[in-house]
Amino acid sequence: MTKEEQEIVQLISIAGESKAKAFEALKCVKTKDFDLAKDLIAESRNLDLEAHNIQTDLITRELNEDVESSNVGLLMVHAQDHYMTSQLARDLIETLISVLQ
Fold first, then answer.
1. 8 Å CB contact between 35 and 25
2. Is-annotated flag, keyword Transferase (predicted)?
3. What's the domain count of the chain?
4. What is the tens place of the pLDDT at every residue in 1-16?
5. Which residues are marked as active site?
6. pTM, whole model, 2 decimals?
7. 70: confidence class by pLDDT, cuts 50, 70, 90
8. Are 72 and 55 in contact (CB under 8 A)?
9. Binding site for Mg(2+), residues?
10. CATH number at residue 95
11. Structural domain of residue 25, as residue ranges?
12. Which residues are annotated as a binding site?
């Protein structure tokens, strides 16, 4: 596995962890533990930022003609899918927490 592919797999993993934290926050809303829910959303947001930084680096290298980048295609599309759904889940759950509190 190339370094770039490892970074993409890391992006997938971080996005999955972010989404898991967001859904854990939603479970806390059911028990009215809003403080923990907000903490978990903050953790999710931090993970999304970490994923965003990896994504930005990968895209920047892809666009830089001076840096050789492998065409990972489907793997990167898969990573993008995970990253975008984790952001969407976090945004929706964060909104639900604010509405239900």
1. no
2. yes
3. 1
4. 888 889 999 999 999 9
5. 78
6. 0.88
7. low
8. no
9. 81
10. 1.20.58.80
11. 3-100
12. 81
